[in-house]
Amino acid sequence: MDIRLIPKEPQEVDRKEIKKVQPSQEVIAEARNILEYGDPIQAHVEYATKVRKVHGGEKTARMITMSTYSCYLPVDDRLHLDVAGSSQIGKSRTVTTILQTFPEENVLVLTEASPKSIYYFAETNPERLKDLAIYLDDAREEHIPVLKTFRNEGNVTPSNLTVGDDKESALQQVQYRSVIIDSSVNPVHDFERQAPSRAFLVSIPDTTPEEEKEVRKAIRLVKRTEAIASKKSDNERDVLRAMAWVLREEGVKGVLVPFDPEEPEDADRRGTGQFMKLIKISAFINQFQRPILELTDGRKFVLATYEDLENAATVWFDFAAGQEFKIAAKVIGVLKDLPTNHPGITAPTLANGKSQRTIERHLEILYEAGLACRQQITAPGMPWGYWCDEQTRQSEMSLLSEMPTDTESENVA
Questions:
Q1: Torsion angle in degrees (nearest 10) through CA of 332, 280, 411, 82
Q2: Are residues 261 and 145 in the same domain?
Q3: Number of domains observed in the structure of the chain
Q4: In the prediction, which pLDDT does 310 show?
């Protein structure tokens, strides 16, 4: 079998040029003022929550902002996200609103993607994946192999062996790995649960009736006044893009943590790594307000401070309930309704007016994660009966009760 290696920078294909637009000096000056004296992360958050009125609150906006900024850092310091939430809850709008506050050449929004499409995209646009955050809307099981490969750490180059039209084998290799953010109703899982373990889980809560009224009110307001409000919104967006531009073009990419932070108790090995990434991302974004270490050989490093540790802790505990098993908080919430003894309770009984299909899926997720037990019950249709032990329920429910609200998170930050 003849195998030809496709070069990482092929000359025979027409590549789309990356248009990097430099912000105006006036906008850059405003951006520098925030970077040097303000709160860069909070600036993105307030644009999303107060100007654009997205659902999900400050917690979600803050996490997506930090993840997107990590696309400028070395591969092993990049933080990928799984965004989970009910259908029509506003996942896509929340993510894309934050992504709009970054330079357009650093963002790629995909409403659909075949499992291997990223390899073909990299073949003709190799430089396009550099410093890039990819958003994959509606992630499905067929995307798991790509999510696992491109979110992997280390020096393994993503490679795909395919067969071309000439029936010769071709090896496609991707030079740059991007930050990948995906959204779905529930995080996609593989049998070994490697896919979700390589990403940080952001669970967007369902709206309360009062919140739903406010969301609809905000939608009406935007539609009524968007013609006059769009210019101001665009100006604020341009300043945020300029902040990212300055950090990308002038920022120090290497970050050192000169103290030994203790990871959260519920963090596994990958969770420990993600917690450290949060510290480094915070330091990178706030580097104009952080010490810079310059070695005799000219290399420079940002030194993280305890303020970055505080930022990392705030973000982690905003979503702590789902990190151990990578399960959305609403799924874990089903545990409170499960009995602690056999034969358990069936999905139709548990649904009690809610979507039985949704409850069945939540129960399957809990079972696959080892949080619930099940056994078929001798009854018409042989339904599954689910139950859990009291210790597991108390442990997971205590995490949910300790999660701070948006107001509490704001106070901590």
A1: -30
A2: no
A3: 3
A4: 96
Residue 65 lies in a domain: yes
Instruction: Please indicate, yes or no, if residue 141 is contained in any of the structural domains.
Output: yes
pTM over the 0.70 mark: yes
CATH classification at residue 45: 3.40.50.300
State yes or no: pLDDT of 403 exceeds 70: no
Q: Would you say the C-alpha torsion 112, 115, 120, 126 has a positive or negative sign?
A: positive
Which residue in 229, 137, 239, 141 sits closest to 180, CA to CA? 137
In this predicted model, which residue has the larger pLDDT, 201 or 53?
Answer: 201
Phi and psi dihedrals of 181, rounded to 5? -115, 125
Q: 265 and 215 in one domain?
A: no
Same domain, 134 and 165: yes
The domain in which residue 177 lies consists of 3-249
Task: Give 211-276 as a DSSP string.
Answer: HHHHHHHHHHHHHHHHHHHHHHHHHHHHHHHHHHHHHHHH----EE--S-PPPPTT--HHHHHHHH
